[in-house]
């Protein structure tokens, strides 16, 4: 999947280098940003090495979570007793827009190491606001949402991850690739996206009617309903 997303990014960059109209460039840049964010979730960057206290690191598989409109709390419990102190310097955390990794070192009397990595988060978080707070028996991980909303699930479903751009033929005409991309963005976008694309198509059709050059391919009657949006 990561290779496919990288191919999408390369194709978008190629189309962006050919696009001239500001509106079209803005749409391509928006989709390019989305694909780069998707790449971060399916192929997270290599994390910096962390010096451990010795011994193996146990992966945390048991956790719970709850949410409100503003943030998500992930609870890790029962990895230490209330008497054991988990020092802040023994907590390492790396937060990305759609994933995070937490390393806990020297936990409990046996000085065990624990790690928790969760990728493909349901929606974006704000890495600079997220934090890890020690509790009596473990830690609570605070994930602050970029947009106020209820997630219902902590991670994306397989169906949601499949909602990607159509595959692009590297040997195809660049204008055909742009046409397919614009159609996909129009069909899957919200009302604001549809309005923006329809406006671009409407203006392109008017240019063609008056004999002016347009950087957009002919996309049929997609822009015809602009006044109705």
Strand order of the largest sheet: 1-6-5-4
- Tally of discrete structural domains: 2
The number of helical runs is 5
Structural class: alpha+beta
Order of helices and strands: HHEEEEEEEEHHH
Provide tags for this entry.
Immunoglobulin-like; alpha+beta; 4-stranded antiparallel β-sheet; 229 residues; 4-stranded mixed β-sheet
Question: What do these coordinates show?
Answer:
The chain is α+β, with helices and mostly antiparallel strands and 229 residues long. The protein folds into 2 domains: 2-41 and 166-228, no CATH class; 57-144, Immunoglobulin-like, CATH 2.60.40.790. Helix content is 33%, strand content 19%. It contains 5 helices and 8 strands, in the order H-H-E-E-E-E-E-E-E-E-H-H-H. The strands form 2 sheets. The chain has a 4-stranded mixed sheet with strand order 1-6-5-4, with no helix packed on it. Strand 7 (131-134) and strand 8 (139-144) form a beta hairpin. Helix 1 (2-18) packs antiparallel against helix 2 (22-42). Residues 48-53 and 213-217 have low confidence and may be disordered.
């Amino acid at each position: 999947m990561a290779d496919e997303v990288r191919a999408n990014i390369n194709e978008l960059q190629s189309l962006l280098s050919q696009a001239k109209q500001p509106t079209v460039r803005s749409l391509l840049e928006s989709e390019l940003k989305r694909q780069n964010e998707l790449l971060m979730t399916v192929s997270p960057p290599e994390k910096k090495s962390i010096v451990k206290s010795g011994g193996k690191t146990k992966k945390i598989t048991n956790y719970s979570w709850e949410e409100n409109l503003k943030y998500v709390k992930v609870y890790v419990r029962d990895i230490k007793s209330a008497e054991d102190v988990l020092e802040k310097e023994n907590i390492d955390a790396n937060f990305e827009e759609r994933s995070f990794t937490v390393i806990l070192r020297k936990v409990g009397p046996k000085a065990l190491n624990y790690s928790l990595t969760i990728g493909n988060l349901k929606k974006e978080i704000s890495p600079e606001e997220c934090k890890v707070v020690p509790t009596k028996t473990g830690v609570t991980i605070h994930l602050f949402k970029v947009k106020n909303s209820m997630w219902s699930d902590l991670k994306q479903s397989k169906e949601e991850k499949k909602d990607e751009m159509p595959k692009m033929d590297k040997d195809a005409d660049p204008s055909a690739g742009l046409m397919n991309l614009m159609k996909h963005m129009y069909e899957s976008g919200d009302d604001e996206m549809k309005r923006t694309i329809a406006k671009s198509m409407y203006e392109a059709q008017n240019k063609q009617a008056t004999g002016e050059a347009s950087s957009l391919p002919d996309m049929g009657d997609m822009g015809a309903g602009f006044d109705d949006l």
